[in-house]
Design goal:
five-stranded parallel β-sheet, 15 helices, 5 strands, 46% helix, binds zinc ion
């Protein structure tokens, strides 16, 4: 699920980490030898971007080797993204989402469509930057994320720098599944996999963000706290989530209208998954099994899943979102009604029964 945004960059002046569960992976990353090109990855968003930014800060901090102090001039510059030895390369969609647009940015234009890819010009500019000398002995840090947004041409441009980084350069990438990376990139980076934080820590953090109770949201998001927070911020609280499978089964899309489309499609995919698990005699994974109505047919659910998958691939298209959501939920409800239909077929007899 789409999740968090780096509202803060690295450790703040009070020494607090951007996300409390970054301590262990940060220590782990700093202990790695030969980590001149590191890929921080996880199956879902658990703060890879925040870790990469904190790692950059740790490398550039004037005081400590282990964790950045958050207070020195270098830390403060990283925090503001103005450190001369830090370069951050992200696709335009992220610059828009993180609100990192500069004054007279071309993306301010109404008809500008931000790119989802890291463009080759961006990589070339970054490589040129790595060849200039660093402003301090700490060296330079090049951050690139998400790593999946690096396509073939950009990857080729980057290979030599990954193999022989000039001077005291460290490259940190953040991303999801490394299998989605080009093999040429994958083989040239050291990998650090981040785990989801334990649920007690995740729930405590969600509570500090105003999202409580959130144990259902956390389960729906496979333990990913940033996605759980996104659900909560979209108005999908635990009570609503507990009622969602039943609402879908009766064709009621109300709770999903006006929510971000990728989030809605993702939720429906999880409803479909759990309904299939129930129909096959298994246990629900995301929702409370007792809230997932039984009686849907497997073949209908499989059809609905395929439809959801197709729609997910095109979720950036400016469709009429409410109509689309209504249609997806209506088609979901058919998975249950098609199973129930035979039982209701002889429906005329009660019309004639007295009383
Ligand atoms: Zn510092």
């Amino acid at each position: 699920m789409a999740g968090g945004e780096p509202k803060t960059v690295g450790v703040a002046g009070d020494g607090s980490l951007p996300l409390p569960w970054l301590r262990a992976p940060l220590d782990q990353a700093l202990r790695l030898k030969r980590s001149h090109a590191l890929l921080v990855h996880a199956d879902q968003d658990v703060g890879q971007t925040e870790l990469a930014l904190t790692l950059a800060q740790a490398r550039l901090c004037e005081h400590v080797e282990r964790a950045p102090c958050g207070q020195c001039a270098a830390c403060r510059q990283v925090h503001r993204r103005t450190h001369p030895d830090l370069r951050i390369v992200v696709p335009e969609v992220l610059r828009v989402r993180f609100d990192w647009l500069v004054e007279d940015d071309p993306l301010h234009r109404a008809n500008a469509k931000p790119s989802r890819e890291i463009k080759i010009e961006q990589v070339r500019e970054a490589i040129e930057w790595t060849q200039r000398s660093a402003s301090s002995a700490r060296g330079r840090v090049l951050l690139i994320f998400p790593a999946e947004a690096i396509h073939a041409a950009s990857a080729n441009a980057l290979l030599k720098t990954l193999e022989e980084p000039p001077g005291n350069l460290r490259i940190v990438m953040a991303g999801g599944d490394p299998q989605r990376l080009l093999p040429t990139l994958r083989s040239r980076v050291q990998r650090l996999r981040m785990a989801v934080p334990d649920s007690a820590q995740a729930l405590a953090w969600l509570s500090t963000q105003g999202a409580a109770p959130a144990s259902r949201a956390l389960a729906v998001c496979s333990g990913g706290p940033l996605a759980a927070l996104a659900l909560h911020e979209a108005g999908l609280d635990d009570a609503t989530l507990d009622q969602l499978p039943a609402a879908v089964a009766r064709g009621d899309a109300q709770a999903l209208l006006g929510k971000p489309l990728p989030l809605v499609i993702d939720l429906l995919q999880r409803v479909a998954h759990d309904a299939m698990a129930r129909a096959a005699g298994g246990a629900a994974q995301y929702f409370d099994g007792a809230t997932v109505p039984a009686g849907a047919t497997l073949s209908a659910l499989a059809r609905w899943q395929r439809e959801l998958l197709r729609t997910a691939r095109h979720d950036d298209h400016p469709w009429n979102a409410p109509l689309l959501v209504e249609a997806l939920v209506t088609n979901g409800a058919r998975c249950w009604s098609s199973a129930a239909a035979p039982a209701h077929q002889p429906s005329t007899h009660w019309l004639h029964s007295p009383g």
